[in-house]
């Protein structure tokens, strides 16, 4: 399982996960391609906090987001 948590506001976040329930056989290699395609297609123009958020990438990096005033 892995996923992304995207801060929308100080009290709201969007979580996107890729997982398979216990007991279910899944083709994670094929599913990973679909998951990454979906994640890379997301765009976030901004938030209520005034920050521009870049879409998540397959290998997440952590860096501070500077608010735009």
Overview of the molecule:
The protein has 69 residues and is of the alpha+beta class. It has one domain (1-61). The chain is 20% helix and 22% strand. The protein is built from 1 helix and 2 strands; from the N terminus they run E-E-H. The protein has a two-stranded antiparallel ribbon. A hairpin with a 2-residue loop joins strand 1 and strand 2. The longest helix is centred in the middle third of the chain and has 14 residues, at 28-41. It is elongated, with a radius of gyration of 14 Å. The termini are far apart.
Short descriptors:
alpha+beta, 20% helix, 69 residues, 22% strand, elongated, two-stranded antiparallel ribbon
Q: In percent terms, what proportion of residues is strand?
A: 15-25%
Overall geometry: elongated
Overall structural class, as computed from helix and strand content, comes to alpha+beta
The CA-CA distance between the termini, in Å, is: 37 Å
- Rg, rounded, reads 14 Å
Mean pLDDT: 73
The count of domains is 1
SSE arrangement, N to C: EEH
**How many individual β-strands?**
2
